[in-house]
Structure formats: C-alpha cells, structure tokens
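Hey, I'm writing a tutorial for new members on how sequence and structure tokens pair up, and I'd like a real worked example in the thread rather than a made-up one. If someone can provide the structure for the chain below, I'll link this post from the tutorial.
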Amino acid sequence: MIPVILSGGSGTRLWPVSRSRFPKQFCELFEESLFNLTLKRAQQIGTPWVVTSKNLRDLTLMSMRQFGFSDQNCIFEPQAKNTAPAISYLVALMMAKGMGEEVVVMLPADHLIGNEDQFKRVLSLAEKEAHKGCVVTLGIKPSYAETGYGYIETEPSKSTTEQGISAFSVKKFHEKPNAETAEKFLKDKNYNWNAGIFVFKISAMAKLLETHQPEMWTNSKQVQLDQFNIESIFEHYRNISIDYAIMEKLDSSNLKCIPCDIDWSDVGSWDAVAKILEFTQSPTKKIEVKAKNNYIHPLKDKTYALVDVNDIVVVDTKDALLIAKKGSSQDVKEVVDKLKIASPSVAQEHVFENRPWGRFEVLRDENHYKSKVIHVLPKAQISYQSHAKREEHWFITRGDGEVILDDKTIKVSSGSYVKIPLGAKHRIRNTGNETIEFIEVQMGTYFGEDDIVRYQDDYKRH
C-alpha cells in the first residue's frame, strides 16, 4: 500500500500559530509537527508520496529530506483546486508510471491518530476491500454531537468483518448538520464522522474519474512523467472536492466505510488543542487566582498569570496574541478574514521562516537596518546569491563552515565576522556536524526577501 499525504489548507482556526505561509501541519503543537507525525505514520505503511501547494515546497522538502524520502515523490500544485483535482492528477501520474494495480491510502497531513495499532488493522481490511475494486473511507465513531464534521451513513445489513472490524456499504454522505440533527446522528450507530481518509486501487479510481468526471480525467491524462506541464493541467481544473466529484456518485456496491475508534482528531481549533494538551501545562508557567479551566499556548520562558477568569484560551506568539472564550475558537477564522484586510502580513507569516537548508528569525526590522538570527543545518548551504539594495554583516556565533564571497572561500567558526558588500555574490555552507548559527545585520534601502538574485541553488528555487 502506498501512503499519500494530502497537505493543503491554511489552518486559519489555529491562528496566530498557524498562518498561510506556515500552516498548522508544520506547527510544532505537539513537540513535533503534525506533518512529521503523519510522515512517521506513513512510513510504517510504505514509501510516502506528498501532494501539496508549491507555496509549501520549502517546508515540505525540509521534512521529506529529514526522513530520507525522495523529492520525486512530491506533487506541488500550482493552484489550490480542492481534493478532486489533486487526486485526479496523482492517479493519472501513477497510471503513467505503470502503478495501476497499487492501492493507495490518502492521509490528511494535519490529523492526529493516537491508536496506531488499531489504525493498521483497519487499513489491512481497507486494502483487501480496495483490491476488490471498492473505494473505502474511514469513519470515526462519534463521541459527541459535532456540527463541524460531515457524516457517513452506513447500511448495517451489508458488511464484511475481519478480526472484529467491519466494512459496511455506504448509504449516504451528509453535510455538516445543525445541532439537533447532530444529536440524532450521535444516537444512531449507523452514522460516523467523515475523517477524509480514503483507500482505493489506482486503476479503479481512474475508471471512476473517467465515468463521473470525464473532462477532469481527460485533462489529467495529459500528465508528463517529469510533471513539466503541471501548470497547464491545473489551469483547466475546476475547484471541487473528491466527495462531490466521486464519492457521492457511487452506489453501495463499490463504496465502503469502516467505522473505527483510533483516537482521532483533526486538530481543527484551539478547543481541540486544549482538550489534548491542557493537562500537560507546567504550574510554574500558568498561575491562576480565582481562575479555572483555562488553556494557555505559551511562548518559551514566559510566565502567565490569570485572575478571576474562567474557560478561556490564550495563544501567544512574538507578534500576535489571541484571547478567546472556550467553545468559540472556531470563530478565529473571522479574525483572520479581518486581518487579511487590516494587516495581511500578520495573517500570512511569522517573524521566522523555515527554509530547506534551515531557518531564520527576524530580530529587528527598522527603516535603516534589519537583523536576523540564521540557522543552517549540517552539510546544508544557502543559495549562491546577491542583493541589489543591501549589504550584509555576518557574525558567526556557533558552528563551523565556509563563506563563498565572489568565488573566494573563507573559513568561519564561532567569533568570525564577514562583510557582504552590496551586489557581491555570496553563500554560507555548513561543513560541520552541528547547526551553524549567525547573526545577520542588513543595511541599505530595502530589506525584502524578494531582493535576491540566485546563481545556484540546491533546491531549484528561482
């Protein structure tokens, strides 16, 4: 079975930690990022593929290379067109590679699964059903009346059972219900949350796409093995989910659902995060007086005091603070919508950025200078580049490496200083076994990240 990680979405409900250029799947909410946790889960199934946005290329490649996975197994969508085009393009590419008899499992990149062993048992049955030509979707047994999820209704009389796990024929998909309907669904054991996890054989999905979405499939079949024409293909896709495009058009003979209890969460809000983490907080970091049932997502080395307030969520980052009443954190999306107009940068990016070679964090950003702390991973190097509007001053604080300055090599280590004149070609290379750290001070007339001319880059950026 081939695991395919779908890594789209912006995670707006987890702002200010999640932002459009650093979405929730890459946020280290649980010591590791959700994307890395999904990669670990996927590698126990097989060699993973990833379908994601081209805007998340650097973040994706950094994680993939950390686990030793090939860049060749990545599809970088030039436009966000929802799940049906993503899956259609993937299926067409795999068919072109002669992988039609393979079974794939589509895994969202931003979900948590606590019971990995049960998950593997569920996938074992799902794979067998997929080899019969069925599309299999995993249903999560509801633990409460949730109005934020879609539901899958099954037919109890039509099932296949193995080791106490059953695959039922699907009767109907239901959109997100109102509170009254959600209560009815909870009482009826034939309704399960739609987790967005699908299992199918590549050739079977190809036939379904050809039947139910012929225009989309004809477009997808133009795929080239090197993905050179991906932009023109995506340009002609319409925006539609796989549920609307395929799932809701299938009958009970070729669509199955396996209800399961795998300790699943889509981590869709700060309320969801609080339920998972609120009992792990250090009492020295959160001091409460006449206060209870509060959750704080803190900054490192910062203490928080709460007086006479109950049931709130506090999320602190270096440039933004969120305070919300528990039960209302879904409305954070409205905050982000307003920020996109009033202060777009705070909705889109952090003061830090990850790169395939490491990361940097902005320390100060003034009219006359900008400073950063930059970390370059062992054996990695930044692109060979120059700037038209600024000079740079590098102060090495940790590690060993070399600076290439106008084709001359300068050895550097802790305590070294290098001046990068305006227009000079330059790069730093980490030659050691630990991360190299340096402080960069920029001086000039413009300090934007787009003032870069690249002459050579290991990561094929322009």
